[in-house]
Amino acid sequence: MFCGLLLLVAQLFTCRAAAGGAGAAQASLIGADSILIVDGETGKVLFEKEANRPREVASLQKLLAALVIIEAGDLDKPVTVTAQDASCQPTKLPNSVGGTYTRRELLGAMLVLSANDAARALARDNSGSEAAFGAKMTLMARRLGAKSSVFKNSAGFSAGGQYSTAGDMMKIAMAAYRDPIIREMCSTENLAWREADGGRTSLRNSNRMLHRHPNCRGLKVGYTGAAGHCTAAVWEENGRRIFATVLHGHKEMFWLQLAVVMKLHAHGLL
Question: Could you tell me the pTM of the whole model?
Answer without folding.
Answer: 0.91
